[in-house]
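Table S2 (continued). Query chain:
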Amino acid sequence: MRTRILTSFIFFLLTTTSFAQILPFGFVKNCMSFSRTTVTDELNKKQIKLIDRNYQKANNPLLQGSTYYSNEADRTPGLGEVAVLSKIDGSKQITEISFINGTKNNSTANFDDVYKQMVNFFKDERTFKSPKYNDVNYFTRDKVYYYVFKVKDVPTILVSNYKLEEDYFGKK
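Corresponding output:
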């Protein structure tokens, strides 16, 4: 009996810990209404921790100096992670979420789930060509812009409270 209870408890802990690291659609949908403190609190609930308050290695210059969060504390390249860059600069906000696969973490299912929910929720998916990132799918709702694209082979979701077609994507 003790073994059965112990096994059930361990299974419960493993299950809740693994689900706690999944970034939900609710965060993507609502992140533009969050303050810095709320962004940090919401990500901490999902075991996505603050890594750097002034990240200088962003893929896009627009995100230099952002706050960097990750579900992977071990910074060894190739492990995979859900990486979040958040930049709040006065009234302008940008959040970039990268679903990076690796030997330890596979974020494909998380990305697929969030993207399907975006398509179902927004229902107005459009596409444009970007010289930097090829095809970019996007949605707009309540003056918030949601972009979905790949940086190399990494699925990425970018959310902003202003249009980024030119500044971020290089669209003329």
